[in-house]
Amino acid sequence: MKINEELCIGCKQCVPYCPVGCIATKGGKVYINHDECVDCGVCKRANVCPKDAIYMPAECYEYPRAIRMQFSDPGIQHPNLRAWGRGTEEAKTNDVTAKFKRGEYGLLLEFGRPGTGTRLSEIEKVTLAMRGMGIPIIKDNPLYGLLEPDISGKFKPEYVNEKVLSAILELVITEDKLEETLNKLFPIFKSLNTVVSVGLVSRFDDNAELPVVKKLKKLGIEVRPNAKINVGLGRPLID
Ligand code: SF4
Ligand code: SF4
Question: How far apart are CA 19 and CA 115, in angstroms?
């Protein structure tokens, strides 16, 4: 996103709307730090500019930059990748898709939200570590298509410095790898120049219990269980 300097009157009405704080003022002028901007479109959609000076220049639609708006603006689709938005909704409908089987956990790592955004280079520190442990990255996810086709966990060089508002990395781990995986991840999180929210997807056992909650508590991790029931989608996995 950019500001047309000839139209802008420096009223600063747009400044508080930027979720990553990249609209700045200098010498009485208001400008957008183009390298920090994630092209989310919030400043324009807020419709507060009295001069209609905020615009999306053509270069923001060109790759590799184009992925910024695809991850950051919920109204924009990824035309070349495998899914919409920042992650996939299947994680929330596991009762229908069975993406995560018995004996497995889904690990959903959300980078960049709230209010900081993230470079893909920060996410790469995690993808490299996870691939180094042999942990698969889910393919039906918009991040997957930005990775090198080998299984190294490296992003393609043209994308690695791109910045997005947030992105969700989806992994599958076997139950026995939980402690080892978290022990690997937490020190990496501390070194990142962004924030990470960790979601763990677990199926109920035959006694309608979630043993993973106790396991996590033993590891000193406080959890906030959050369930979703998809009424109306049927129970195709009942067998
Ligand atoms: S497009 Fe989004 S990130 Fe860029 S200046 Fe506007 S609000 Fe900030
Ligand atoms: S709202 Fe419009 S006129 Fe006011 S500072 Fe922002 S871009 Fe300039």
Answer: 5
Ligand located closest to 48 CA: 2
Question: Does a structural domain hold residue 179?
Answer: yes
| Closest to 197 measured CA to CA, from 217, 218, 168, 227 | 168
The structure tokens listed for 147 are 């990775």
Measure 38 CA to ligand 1 centroid, in angstroms. Answer: 6
Residue having the nearest C-alpha atom to atom 1 of ligand 2:
49
Judgement on whether residues 46 and 84 belong to the same structural domain of the protein: no
Ligand 2 pocket at CB < 6 A:
3, 8-14, 30, 48-51, 53-54
pTM given for the model: 0.91
> Domain tally for the chain?
2
Tell me which residue range forms the domain holding 37.
2-61
In a domain, 69, yes or no: no
* Residue 237 belongs to a domain: no
Does residue 133 lie within any of the structural domains? yes
Please give the distance, rounded to the nearest whole angstrom, from the Cα atom of residue 40 to the centre of ligand 2. 17
The model's pLDDT over 218-230, given as tens digits with 9 standing for 90+, comes to 999 988 877 766 6
Give how far Cα 64 sits from Cα of 61, 69, 114, 201, Å. 9, 11, 23, 32
pLDDT digits (tens, 9 = 90+) for 75-91: 888 887 666 677 676 66
Residues 161 and 191 in one domain: yes
Please indicate, yes or no, whether residues 41 and 119 belong to a single structural domain of this protein. no
